[in-house]
Amino acid sequence: MRxxxxxxxxxxxxALAPVARAQAPRVSLAVRLSPDSTPSGAxxxxxxxxxxxxxxxxxEALNRTFPVRLEFRLEIWRGRDGWIDDFQRATExxxxxxxxPLQDVYRVTRILLSGPEEFHxxxxxxxxxxxxxxxxxxxxxxxxxxxxYNVSLRISALSDEDMEDLERFLSGDPTAxxxxxxxxxxxxxxxFLRMAGLPVQTLEMRSEKFLVR
Length: 213
What we know:
Blueprint: H1 3-23, E1 28-33, E2 45-50, H2 56-63, E3 68-79, E4 86-100, E5 105-112, E6 115-121, H3 124-131, E7 135-136, E8 145-157, H4 160-170, H5 183-195, E9 201-206, E10 210-212
Antiparallel strand pairs: 1-2, 2-7, 3-4, 3-8, 4-5, 5-6, 8-9, 8-10
């Protein structure tokens, strides 16, 4: 192959690389309304996280055994024509996804106001199927008027120190002393987390409006 042809081939490969990256699945958030099944017309929110596990960024985080945390915040708003919309209330919950490298299994901890729940999956496909389920959140607006839901999702990778804090919280004793680690070890943890190139990603979606009579 002539040098000029080689240059053209490499240039072509370089041009195709961004296209391939663009075609990779990217995590997204969907918010819909449940069917109108109440006399007042009130609707519950349906929330779905799409393509989190196939997303190359968060798939690589799990490959490197970084736990992935999803923090949800759901807000109820009442629309007011000609005025600033009225915030009614909010609810929050989170998920932590961990890969156990020795067994190559996955553990999900769902943290609710009522306490934590754990789920276990033998394969990544099982985890992906569970993650893309549509979840109905058991909240409804109060009063009458035109309402909508606003949902935000923050996705992040957790360091070892973050996980220690979380495990102490879940154990019911958040005031227990931390295991002491040297400044060098803490610096190495932060370095490897930065080198992994794992950003904090924030998504936000609003539902359609609905009328409560």
